[in-house]
């Protein structure tokens, strides 16, 4: 349940927000229009400079730890030579009806210089709920990425390097941290939980986007949302909220490893359909283990999953030779021991994941079943201990981003950068009548965006060995959308790897190329319709 304190829940959910002090033309941010000096920060600007936001920084408490916006001039190395851009690391203020600042949203913006007027702008965020944007920032789209070394998973010795596949090559970027993550905070810590919910979160994100658009005069730019995991769900909800409450229509959404339909993900493996949507991801991991992966081989597993496998699970329990033959096929596709498959009657229980590499003394990651680490609890019969990906090398994104923001972007604060606030997920309000994650749905938001905006396009990207949000679930959603809505407007792309497949240089490059094509196609169609 969302807890209210001094502000009523109705006021919070309505966001009680304004754009801060009224904006005149002189007050517009100069992001993307820097003065000629090589580097600067807002802290060095005179008070009457048009970029001054002193009113935004009013207030005490934890928000007093947030410095003024830092603005620097940078260059992105490209095949065509250096591309100059302006980087801004700062905060967007949210005000209550009493004029007091109630929260600050941390963001990082990258805006190319000398760009055409119709250059797209993309607002990006991660998921969780409770994850900061550093994953996408230093893992995929930003001008710098964190290199985990030859093994691809050495977080202790990771190094920040130029990103040759930065999306800044084809879109301006604004990466946003939801409240409770990164450096985004409420003025009163006890009020943070007011924003831990589907609706309130979407309203805050929509307001932050509208605030950035207004202050930076980007109303005419094609606008896109990029969200990873729960961030994909968040993107769908924010798209709707932007249209309804802010009068902003987005041109497209990119969902990376998204949650779209909770019923197909949470607890779904107990049911025939959910198990059939999980099996291809397990099969992909087994193919990788055998060094035999091809998308053609994966297609065989997909066919088995939606035909013989689904029919067998949905029907009466198999017996005798029929059961043995079926269980043997499941074991062959998934790599699970035959006795484990037989014990679970072909279903893919959570505990069965423990068995995938047990013979090797290893445990696989739910976030990437193709990645295994030594099992810290080999004597345990059930899955136990931290995830090798989520709790392993990817945690380095947090410290790396804090150092990058301080040393390169010039945003210097003693506040801790929260990469992943794991308690937020347990406090999340999924909707009315105590709805749970297993009932969450974003399909209607997708349908309505397609229906109401002719220019709207959707790109969904998945790693094939992801067990958290299996790719077959998204394919199921797309396949069941009305053809008149979806035809030619939704693209599903698959890559080798897991939930954060972009940690692989090859997958990251392939995804960046596909994203560039998506933007080019969407922008051409948008211009033709305007």
What does this molecule look like?
The protein has helices at 9-13, 134-141, 198-215, 230-246, 272-289, 295-314, 320-334, 338-343, 396-409, 422-427, 443-452, 471-479, 483-486, 505-529; strands at residues 70-76, 83-95, 101-112, 121-125, 144-147, 159-162, 172-176, 185-186, 223-228, 252-256, 362-364, 372-374, 457-463, 490-495. The chain has 530 residues and is of the alpha/beta class. Strands 1, 2, 3, 4, 7, 8, 9, 10, 13 and 14 form a 10-stranded mixed sheet that branches. Mean pLDDT is 87; it is low at 1-52 and 526-530.
List key phrases describing it:
disordered N terminus; 14 helices; ten-stranded mixed sheet; 530 residues; disordered C terminus; two-stranded antiparallel ribbon; alpha/beta; single chain
Uncertain segments are: 1-52, 526-530
Indicate the structural class: alpha/beta
Order of H and E elements: HEEEEHEEEEHEHEHHHHEEHHHEHHEH
Number of helices: 14
Using only C-alpha atoms, the radius of gyration works out to 24 Å
Task: Give a short account of the largest sheet.
Answer: 10 strands, mixed
Give the integer mean of the pLDDT values: 87
In short:
The chain has 530 residues and is α/β, with parallel strands linked by helices. The chain has helices at residues 9-13, 134-141, 198-215, 230-246, 272-289, 295-314, 320-334, 338-343, 396-409, 422-427, 443-452, 471-479, 483-486, 505-529; strands spanning 70-76, 83-95, 101-112, 121-125, 144-147, 159-162, 172-176, 185-186, 223-228, 252-256, 362-364, 372-374, 457-463, 490-495. The longest helix is centred in the C-terminal third of the chain and has 25 residues, at 505-529.
